[in-house]
Amino acid sequence: xxxxxxxxxxxxxxxxxxxxxxxxxxxxxxxxxxxxxxxxxxxxxxxxxxxxxxxxxxxxxxxxxxxxxxxxxxxxxxxxxxxxxxxxxxxxxxxxxxxxxxxxxxxxxxxxxxxxxxxxxxxxxxxxxxxxxxxxxxxxxxxxxxxxxxxxxxxxxxxxxxxxxxxxx
Length: 169
Fold this sequence. Notes:
This protein is an all-alpha fold.
């Protein structure tokens, strides 16, 4: 009888060890997912900042007529890229890609407004571009914070054993 009890205890210990290992693996997978999404958004923010920097640089170094044409071409290229992102997100049924498509759409609309901002407010154009870049940076910073908090909260909610205990009873 004591041997059966010892075997039961060993089985329970093995089961608990497996559950702990599974939770550790789940934690590592979720941490990788969180880091992947944050890294993805940080890369997009960096690309947007480089884009605004190049527009600012171009406004100083390129002739007015050529620069206006460049802005129009960039705007159309971004709109085409937005359509591609929307189609891809529709095929994959991925809301995350759709959100990136919306962000690129906003960027293309802003680029189109830059054409008229450059024509009407030539002397203040660099300030407009810098302000827009600053707003984009704040947007991506807030987005990364919200994503991190939301994903971390979901992770901690799933980590909670109370739901499993209630289901067992």
